[in-house]
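Colleagues,

Please find the record for the two-part complex below.
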Amino acid sequence: MIEVKNINKSFGDTQILFDVSAKFETGKVNLIIGGSGQGKSVLTKCIVGLHEVDTGHVVYDDRDFSEMERKDRKLIRQEIGMLFQGSALFDSLTVLENVMFPLKMFTKMSREEREERAHFCLNRVDIINKDNLLPAEASGGMQKRIAIARAIAMNPKYLFCDEPNSGLDPKTSIMIDNLIQEITYEYNMTTVVITHDMNSVLEIGDHIIFINKGRNWWQGNKESIMKTDNKEVVDFVYASKFMRNLREKFVNS
Amino acid sequence: MNLFEHIGRYILMLKSVFARPDKGRVFWERFFNETVEIVINSIPLIAFLSFFMGGVITIQTASNMSSPLLPDYTIGYITRQSTILEFSPTIISLIIAGKVGSNIASEIGTMKVTEQIDALEIMGVNSIGYLMLPKILSTTLFFPFVIIISIVLSLIGGWFAGVTSGLYSTEIYLLGIRAFWEEDQNDLYYALGKTMVFGFLITSIASYYGYYTKGGALEVGRASTKAVVASSVAILLANYILTQLILI
């Protein structure tokens, strides 16, 4: 489980996060949702340590990440897999080399063992016989799947996904959502997904946190978000007429 | 950011550059790859430039020496000294700053804006050390060898230009090349020493501008330009300081 306690974060004079506390449970897909510029990405970057928090704590299974030295943080980071919005695959490496990269850096596996593990991860995300492809030669959906394979290569305990559906067609988006959910349950990971995609919210949101104006405004799950009366959540999630009708039907039934 | 803030951040960056590599085997693999990419791949351009630069130095020296009191071998001697002291180490370094500096800044800058550097950090990799140390070390160590090639080719270029245009014979030119060598041979060590400094400055400054790029493609382009300008200025300043310290 990942727990954030009373996080505050400012850039210069602008405070982005205000006393944010939340729990991200193990074996569940935890979603962080909210409008643009509300602090979702900053919160995630604080959790993974790309930004230092001003005050507050980030705790990974009773280990206080925000109080740790760099070398101790490094050990926790090896337990983290992250899927970036733009996939962030290394341009100069092939698909296979990308997936083998963390194994090469942090394990004593032989080349054969690394290849075997990388092929296992690539097969898990349905990438077959694409070893020598460069990331630029792969489609957007394929790049996301390769990035997921790289993220799970080290068998992480924690998986972070930053807008995994951005730029993908609806069918591929659902496929990526389902893949993230399956992997979370299969490996009992603590998964945190930042998303704008309301399909994802209703499809895989085991636990949902709504960030608004830098605060943890609301939390619940995919069932409770259909019934909530919280004005800001309703305005954000049910912004379209279609979604409002859907909600109405759900509440009435 | 003002100049002092840039210098401060650059020094802090260097501290991370020289941290122990995460994995020795990966470091050496990258070191050899970078040596090929930065140093070996620059040799054809340097060879071409050096040969013609030597030729031009010789012709210009000859055309400006009309005094009958000066012996003919002076042309070879001046060509050698100009090449060793300034043309090969400094001018070639400035050209390399343009070629290699922009390449490094745009490579690292692109990695930054496409979150590849964040991906390295999340994995627990010291991204600064991983990306920069092999580049800086390979350039600092091997750049002097490239400059030796440049010096040799420049002198050959001088010989070719002089002999084909009938300015002197091969014997006279070689006499000039060998003249006063015993007294002047420390100039070669001075040239190679300052080349190491220039190599370090080119790669570290370009890496710095690439690493701290923010934004998108436009900023990567700007970082690349700034890297070339800043490393060229740094080379000229370092050249002046080293010349004052060593030769005066």
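Chain A touches chain B through 24 residues (CB under 8 Å).

Comments are welcome before we finalize the supplementary table.
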